[in-house]
Structures are given as C-alpha cells and as structure tokens.
Amino acid sequence: MSTSAPGPHRRSRRKVVLAVALPTGLAAALATTLTGVGAASASAALPRPDHVVVVMMENHAYQQIIGSKDAPYLNSLATGGAVLKASYGITHPSQPNYFAVFSGSTQGVTDDGCYTPASMSAANLASELIAAGKTWGSYNESLPGEGSTTCKSGKYAQKHNPWFAFKNVPAASGHTFDQFPTDFGKLPSVSFVVPNLCSDMHDCSVGTGDSWIKKNLGAYASWAKTHNSLLVVTYDEDDKHSGNQIPTVLYGQPVRAGSAPTTKYSHYDLLRTLEDLAGLTTHAGKAAGATDLAGLWN
Known about the structure:
It is built from eight helices and twelve strands. It has about 300 residues and is α/β, with parallel strands linked by helices. It has a single domain (about 45-290), classed as 3-Layer(aba) Sandwich (Alkaline Phosphatase, subunit A). It starts with 7 loop residues before the first helix and ends in a 21-residue tail after the last helix.
C-alpha cells in the first residue's frame, strides 16, 4: 500500500470539508491557520474604553520628564500605567505636530502662524468620530470663549488647537477648560485637553506643568482607573536636542501597570490607536498606514 502524502487536490478537499463541518467561528479560525492569511489585526485586540482624554504638553524630551524629580505626578502615572520608551514627534516647530496627531498629516503647515479658521476639509479624528455617531470635544485653557477662533489671547495660542482649522469639525466643540465636566461620565468619547502656554511647560517649568496635570486631571485619572477609561499625556515635540523623542504616558483601567513598550511610535501611531480604541473603521491621513500601540493593554 502506498504511504505517499495526498496530492494537492485531495488536500484542498479536506480543507473544504473541515471548514463546512465545523461551527462557523472555529471554521474561520482553522481557515486562517491553514492558509496563513488574515491574522487578527492589532485593532481587534485593543480595549474599548468608554472615554479617552488626551493631554498635549510642550517642548520637552523624554529624559527631561521621565525619571525627573520635577515631574513626580507624571512619573506616578507612568509607574501605575504605561510609558512609551520610544515615542517621537513628527517635525519642528510645534504646530505641524498638532495637525499630525489630529488629522494624520501636517496639512502643509510648516510654522506656528495663525491659520484661517474652517479652511481645511481633510478627514480628522473629530470628523471620523462624528460620522460614526460618537462624540468629540476639546477643552482649551485660556480660550476666550467656546468656539473662539482668535489667534492669541493672553496665554492662549491658536497654534495648539488644530480642530478650528477644519470645516468638518463644529467650532462649538472647542470648549474652554472651565467647561471640562466634573461628572466624568459626561465626557465625550474622545477629547483633547490643551493647557495654556504656561501650564503646558512651554513658558513655565516642568514642575508647574506637572502640578497643573495633577490638580486639574488627577481626579479624572483616578476615576479612569475604575471606569474603563483612559488618560494619555503626550508632547508635541522635544527640546530639539533629543531626536524628537518625547514622553508619552497612558493611564487607566485598560492599561497594564508598569508597561514600557520599546517599539518606536509616532504621532501617527497614536492617532491610529485613538481611532481604533473608539472602534472607528476609517483612518485619517498617514494613520491608515500606522501601527496600534501594543504591549501595554490589560
């Protein structure tokens, strides 16, 4: 009797029979194994937090914050949550990085000048959330009033608020920081917090910014730890002396405490992750080819 292996046609028939005979889910898994195609995407493994708050800080390199005695609160978040060991801004100066993390592109912006409000139509995180029936908002310290598109007012600077540049984002979704809810369950699905030029460490010290985050977002961070929510603290760019390596810290119930992934990530990867955490099926600009943050989720 021949003991040779079955020919290719016989192998194909066996695959078909197995796939039909097994329950649908198991058959699909077996088909994936047999063909080596269609491995589960990274987004399928991501949690689905109820609320995500992203805080944008300014102009500091990784080593200026992580491990610094001047940033005890941020380091406590890194210890109790996750810190990305190789997180990078896209470019210099400041403003293009805000556009990158919000829309997956610098949108041709190369400086910190004041742009024309509602002049851009590219897809972005807010427009995608709204199209998917989810909620979006930004909370901007020292913004003169909700929806204000002024270029500068005291310590407020429009260059840190890219959402006002897009005609597909309601201007009224740009709130003052005083409107940040005390009932955190009323927060949007995804929101950005932008401190003013002192609180974000641009004009003032690391200690000043660290204390601001603790005072204004510490209660949310504690709440997020037990309410399936997430706090992300990141920076636009470094101090221009560290290859644009920036601190990025994540904290909340979905995050595994003590995680410190070493994979290299950029603002585009963070945007991709925010989209996928929200369950979006679209990705703005270069986020479409970016990678979800991994190695830090419960």
